[in-house]
Amino acid sequence: MKILLYNPDNGVTRNFMPHLWMFLLQSLTPKEHEVILIDGNAKAMTRDELVRFCKDENIGLVGIGAMTRMVARAYLVADSLRAAGIQVVMGGPHVTECADEALGKDGGPRHADAVALGEADEYWATIVEDAARGELKEIYHSEVDPKGNDKKPSLQPYPHIPWETLDLDQFSLVPGFLKPILSKLGAGWGKFFVVPIETGRGCPYGCEFCTVTGFFGDSIRFRNNESVVEELLRLKERAKREKGQIAVFFIDDNLAINKKRLKSLLRDMIAAGATLPWVAQISANLLADEELVDLIADAGGKWIFIGMESIDPANMADVNKTFSKPANYKDVLDGLARRNIFAITSFIFGMDNDTVGVADRTVQEIESWQPGLPVFGQLTPFPATPLYDRLQKAGRLHRPKHWLEFAPFVMAHNPLKMTIDEAKDETFHAWSRSYSPERNREAVEAIRDTPIGIRIGHIVARLFFRGIYFPQMNKRAWFKLFYDNRRTLFSLTREGLSTWRKSRKRQRFDTGLVGKFESETMAETGLRK
Ligand code: B12
Ligand code: SF4
Question: Taking phi first (over 0 means left), then psi (-120 to 50 degrees means alpha), and beta for anything else, what does residue 18 get?
Fold first, then answer.
């Protein structure tokens, strides 16, 4: 049977990073079946095109995964495929919590033939075999232990994802027309992929708005170091072979949740030379450890995603995140910047203690720190989170099924001290102010003492991250963005080129000297080449 794994686009920006679940399930599929992957964020297709593709390719099963914010799109795609007689199974965090909705058992229409609840690693093969026989069950889930808890995959051994041979072209971040020039630059920039890798699952912190503790559990399961290092080495080898660049996104929710184990992993990575550039999510409270931050830098860490949420401690207490202290944020970022590591700082507006002006207050504080990539969201009650329950009980859910009428940056509940419209304006203002061409210039200027490569990386990351809020789906939008930021881009390019020329000259000079030295030595010793 041919299987398509499909991820709907997020409607905002294309082509950022592929989703790990697709590659994971592909590698767990029994070998007699063929699996094709399509990510709508990388390869845009209308529903009709997708149905035609499935018919032409004789696809027998489509697996769709979606976060809550994309689930309405996912349902539309599923509806079209089922109408064409193709079996659909849906999985991921949303349908795990709202299985009845996907199966049409809550009074609404049915969207999926089957749903996969929780982590599907250990039963995906069963779904495939059932589908191949045309005998899909409605609900699949992991085995349950005598106490009624899900048996979670141990991650040891971890499935082999054949990154070295997979066709990743749809995920390259380098536009086609720049490929020929960029592949000649340095070690080669003809292709650039951000690849997701996990080293563990689970989080004990249980922040009120988050689905992770409920979904993956409050104890953490780690892969062993050897398996992570081996995967990284294969990626590094591929980047070298293809004259491209691969960066890794460690998608663990808190890579440093066990500092002892992370230090041991980083030491093993360094010892094996498995050091590609990487990004990871780590909470601020764990980054005060100087030894850890040194190891992060030595092991290739470039950007750390920190869920800062709010600069107001009262808000942090409201969402059960007091372990993260706003008063410490500046020191943490200074510590990272001393090692040329920068932070993606994530904030949430519309919390219960937020009032009008929260965006300016927050951005002003951010601008007093080392420059980073701030991202701004809004407090969103995802199904099955403690936040959802609290707001529902208090009768504060304005749109209890907000995902079925998804509207970006329109809150689903009423914040206590501002309106839904005000929260939207605040969020918009924070994004515009943080990614204006002036702010981009100031941010790059603030790190003028760092090597040119780091500053170029910084501006490129800024232009991409802006795309989380501002749609950047077509060439025109990208062109306008480059035009608006032309002064910064032009001066960095000029400096970059001159540094590159100087280093080539120096290289030729050094080679010349070595050549001269070699010939003289050979002449003196009577040796000939
Ligand atoms: C990496 C990541 C991202 C990446 C993008 C996703 C990507 N390309 O990988 C980035 C950083 C951009 C991101 C952004 C956001 N993210 Co995010 N992200 C994650 C993260 C940390 C890892 C995802 C992952 O790969 N997990 C590991 C894989 C193995 O797990 P999995 O995806 O759940 O898949 C397993 C099962 O669910 C199941 N499964 C999944 N799909 C399918 C499909 C089928 C057919 C089957 C059978 C099974 C199946 O099988 C898999 C193996 O067991 C998760 C948290 C987490 N730990 O999962 C949050 C998470 C998915 N994100 C979340 C959110 C809210 C967001 C944002 C909306 C945040 C914001 N406010 O801006 C944005 C959305 C941006 C956008 N425009 O799309 C929430 C989603 C909650 C929900 N109910 O939807 C999560 C769960 C985190 C949380 N705090 O609750 N995210
Ligand atoms: S927000 Fe981060 S720290 Fe808090 S529960 Fe979710 S994954 Fe854990």
Answer: beta
Tens-place pLDDT, residues 223-263:
999 999 999 999 999 988 888 889 999 999 999 999 999 99
pLDDT at 389: 97
Q: Please, what's the largest Cα pairwise distance for the chain?
A: 93
Could you give the CA distance from residue 63 to residue 80 in angstroms, rounded to a whole number?
Answer: 14
- Is the Cβ atom of 348 under 6 angstroms away from ligand 2? no
Strand partners, 346: 307, 375
Selected residue with higher pLDDT from 141 and 526? 141
Which of 6, 10, 16, 21, when mutated, tests ligand 1's pocket best, judged by the most ligand atoms within 8 Å of its CB? 21
| Ligand 2 atom at minimum distance from 213 CA | 5
d(C-alpha 141, C-alpha 99), whole Å: 11
The protein residue with its alpha carbon nearest to ligand 2, atom 6, reads 210
SS3 (DSSP) at 262? helix
Contact yes or no for 28/20 (Cβ under 8 A): no
DSSP per residue, 63-98:
EEE--GGGHHHHHHHHHHHHHTT-EEEEESHHHHH-
* pTM reported for the whole predicted model: 0.92
Question: Residue 494: CB partners within 8 Å, gap ≥ 6?
Answer: none
Contact 96, 141 (CB under 8 A): no
Residues within 6 Å of ligand 1 by CB: 10, 12, 16-17, 19-21, 24, 63-65, 67-69, 89-94, 116, 119-121, 124, 196, 198, 210-212, 216, 251, 253, 377, 382, 468
CA atoms of 114 and 127, how far apart (whole Å): 9
Using pLDDT thresholds of 50, 70 and 90, give the confidence band for residue 186. low
pLDDT at 43: 85
The full DSSP string for 406-426 is --TT--SB--SSS-HHHHHHH
Is 340 exposed, middle or buried, given 0-12, 13-18 or 19+ CB atoms closer than 10 A? Answer: middle
**pLDDT-derived band of residue 513, with 50, 70 and 90 as boundaries?**
low
Identify which ligand lies nearest to the alpha carbon of 93: 1
Model confidence at 373: pLDDT above 60: yes
